[in-house]
Amino acid sequence: MTEKAEVKLSDGTTIELPVVVGSEGERALDISKLRAESGLITIDSGYGNTGSCSSAITFIDGEKGILRYRGIPIEELAEKSTFVETSYLLINGTLPSQTELTNFQKEITRHTMLYEHVKSFYDGFPRDAHPMAILASVVCSLSSFYQDEVGNPEETSYLNSIRLMAKLPTIAAWAYKKSVGQPFMYPDNSLNYCENFLQMMFGLPVEKYEIDPVLVEALDTLLIIHADHEQNCSTSTVRLVRSSLSNMFATIASGICALWGHRHGGANQSVIEMLQQIHQDGGNVKKYVAMAKDKESGFRLMGFGHRVYKNFDPRAKIIKKKCDALLSKLNLEDPLLDIAQELEEAALNDDYFKEKRLYPNVDFYSGIIYKAMGIPVNAFTVMFALGRLPGWIAHAKEYTEDPSNRIGRPRQVYTGPQEQVYVPINQR
Ligand code: CMC
Question: Is the pTM of this model over 0.90?
Answer without folding.
Answer: yes
